[in-house]
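Catalogue entry: protein

Sequence with per-residue C-alpha cells
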Amino acid sequence: MSSSPTFPPGARPGGATLTAVDETRDRRRVVFATVIGTTVEWYDFFTYAFAAGLVFGPAFFSGLGENSVLLSFATVGVSFLFRPFGAFLAGHLGDKYGRKLVLMVTLILMGAATALIGVLPTYAAIGVAAPILLILLRVVQGVSAGGEWGGAVLMAVEHAPDKKRGLFGAGPQTGVPLGLLLASGVMALMAMIAPGDAFLEWGWRIPFLLSVVLILVGYYVRRKVEESPVFAELAERKQEAQMPILRLFCKHTVLVIVTALVFAGNNAVGYMTTGGYIQNYATNPDGPIALDRGPVLWAVTGSAITWLLSTIVAGWASDFLGRRTTYILGWVLQLGGVFALFPLVNTGNLALLFAGLALLTIGLGFTYGPQAALYSELFPASIRFSGVSVSYAIGAILGGAFAPMIATAIVKATGGTGGVTAYLAGMTVVGLLATLLLRDRSGIPLGPDHEAEQQVSPVRGLSQA
C-alpha cells in the first residue's frame, strides 16, 4: 500500500521537503495538538454532564416540578440533537477549506459556552430565564462537539504512517477519557474544597470558569499544527468537494447509518459515566446507595485512567489485528462490563463500585480506540470530513444523547437497575451487529489518487454505496 499522501517521502504540496526527523516531529506535534484540543473540548462537555447529575436539577429546574433531575438530564441529551448541525457545518467547511480552520473555531465555541455557564444565574435569581439560557449554551456545546471530532481524528490519521493509523488515531480518542479524568478530578477537588451546600452554591462554578485557561492552551497548541496532507493535496489540485454533504447522502447513506450504529453501541454505555448517571445514582440521598459525592467522583476519575489505557492499547492493537477484529473483541469485553456494572455498584461498596466502572471502561476503550482509523478508512478523501462527522453525530444521538434520562426513567418505573442493564446490553449487541456488516479496510490508501477504490462500499452485500 502507498502512504496516505501521494507525494514522495518528506514532500509536501508546493514543493517543500522535510527530513525524516522533521516529519516525525511534525507528526508528534499533530498528535499532541489533537490530544490537547479534544481533552479540552470533552472536559467542557463532561463538566456540564457531571453538573447536570449533581447540581443543575435543584439550581436551574427547582421551580419546574418534582422531575428536576430528569429535566436536568434531558438538557444533556438536547445538545446531541444539535450535533448533526455542527457536523454538517463542520463537514462542509472541513472538506472545502481544511481541517485546521474547523478545529480552531470549535475549540473557541466550546470554551466560550462553558465559561458562560459558570457565571449563569440560577432559577432562584432570574426564574425560568435560567434554564432557558442554560439550554441555549448547551446547544452551543452540542454544535461545537459535532464539529470537533471529525477534524481532530482526520488530522491525526491523515498525518499517520499507514501501519500506525490505529495508534495515531487513538490520540484524539484519548481526549474522552482524559476529559473525563480532568472533569471528574476537578469536580472531586471542588467537592473537597467546598463541601455540602458550598458546592451547590458556588463550588460547581469553578470547573466551568477554568475552561478559559484550558481554551487558551488548546488554541496556542493547535495554531502551530500544519494542515492535513490529504486535504493539502486536494486543495493544490483544486479538488475540494462541491456540496460534500449532498454527495455523502447520495452515494453513502447506508454506510453512514451502519457506522452511526457502531458508535451508538459504545456511546450509550459510555454515557453511564460521562453523562453523569452513575454519579447521580450513587450519590442520590433518596436512592439505594447514597454514597458521599467526593469518593464517587474519585472512583469515576480512577475509571477514566483504565479507559485511557485501554483506548491506547486498542488503537495500537488494531494496527495488527485489524479494526474489525479489535472491535469485535471490544464488544465482548463491553458486554461483560455491562452485566457486571450494577451488581457491583449496588453493593454500596466504593471499591466494588470502582471495580464495576473499571471493567466497563476496558470494553469501552476497545470499542473506541480504533474508531478514528476505522471511520477514516471507510469514506472517500473528498467527503471524508463530512462522512466521519455526520456518522459520529448521528451515532451520538442514537446512543448517548438520552441514555442517562432513559436509565433514570427505567429505574423510576421499575424500582431496579435490571432494565438498565438490558438496555445497555441491547445497545452493545447493536454495535456488534453493525460492526459485522463492515469489511475491514485497514491500510487502504487515504489520498485522492485512490478515490475510486475508496468509493467501493465497505458494507457487506453492497458493491457501491
Summary: The two ends are 23 Å apart (CA to CA). Residues 18-455 form a domain with the Growth Hormone; Chain: A; fold (CATH 1.20.1250.20). The chain is about 75% helix and 0% strand. The CA atoms of residues 342 and 445 lie 43 Å apart.
